[in-house]
Fold this protein.
Amino acid sequence: MIIRVPKIRSNVIPEEELNRLLKNIYQKYEKPDIVLVKNAISFVRRRLASRELGLVSRAYDFSKRKHDMQKRYSGEPYFNHLISTALILSEYEVDAKTISAALLHDILEDTNVQKEDLEKEFGKEIANVVEALTKANKEKRSNEPYMQKLLLSACTDMSVLTIKIADKLHNLRTIEALPKGKKIRICKQAFEFYAPLAELIGMKKAAEEMREICISVLWPKEYKELKERLSVEYTKKELEVDEAISILNKKIGGKPFRSFSIKKAKKPFSHYFQKIREGKILEELYDFFYIVISAKSKDDCYLAMKMVHESFHPIPRKFKDYIATPAGSYKALHTSVIGPSGNPIKVYIMTNEVYEIQERSAGWFAKSKKKQQLPQKIVWLAHRPKEEFEEAIAHGLKWQDITIFDSKGKPSNIPKGSTVIDFAFEIEPTVAENLIAAKIHGKFVPLSTELKHADRVELFFAEEKQIRPEWLRMAKLYETKKKIGRLLAKEKAEVDINF
């Protein structure tokens, strides 16, 4: 929780002062949310001596005063929601202006406060973010205009999108108070739109929690069954992984390996739900808990891999080198080994820098406002014409990139799920309409073939145009389909003129 605190000159937080402030957190509400309290403690510990806390405290007091008599659908104070939204963001180490804007994000819509009042109290930057969220909310009756308005605002200030994701996550956490029909509508939108966006901008934890809540509402029976089965699998796998980590620590815990960090991690529920939907069975999966090793450099990563394979027998064909062949911006080594109990264990090895990005998620965008940049896919989507935006949303959003090599070994990053047709329009846009054949790893394949990470693709072009309407079905990327559509329309127009 964000609370008013006295100024402290020392950078060291006196323990008695901290305990007093944390006690105040528990007294604010009769039944505080566990996650809220946990995050509040973390927030106070990090921010207590910060100069920025004054701004956050003023936003807290101002918002509490204006929303004082308002209630949520559940009957709890509406201000609880604003605090929770701000605290979700505090997990990602965003700056004080973003936290303050989160506390104020509904004030223009739900109170008599005007934008000019916010500018006077908190400055133009915070007022603009709150106004952008308010304008986007006015489009809620129609999903697509609302979504596009939100993304357009985020192109100006990324805080708009991060606050909206935190706002949506807390709404999902408290969704049980809503009628069934409304719950289903909200969860469907969050599952298809907000969770992929959260993952794309680095808010991975928020994305995973969103997905699990949405699955529990949209597929309650399947959720309950899988949850019970996973509980058993998680317990068994954690014991095996703990034993393997103990062995590795003895192996690489001393010089010159003290710079290595060995941890266990847990795959989220949504990962397994998706696997089951793809036709997998739980018994053939084994990465419920896995090992993550972080090291100082790429060379150290390969050294750690050597030590892992010396400690446990590696499983053939389960080694992947995403350092030499990155998957987009992701660089790591993957391997599977036979653990001490005779069962497979997944191991991921990466540099400390990559680990930081993976684990701390959106912390990277808080470092400098000048460096804040939305992923190009979001910028591109935000600026599509209304009809194209709606069509793109309807076709689903594929955010994950894979690396594909052309015949000369040059790598290109394209979205997962792309086909040969998509690849041709990506690397040879001027002659892609003349595509006649393709090879993957030296073998001829249909043009509709879906590409896999690290595929080596050789394209063959004819002198004459080969494009035909069937290509629209073969292509999977929205942008490729639009290019094909324009070329087909142009060709038809040329034919009509000749007649």
Observations:
- Residues 1-13, 28-33, 361-371 have pLDDT under 50 and may be disordered.
- The chain is about 55% helix and 10% strand.
- The two ends are 73 Å apart (CA to CA).
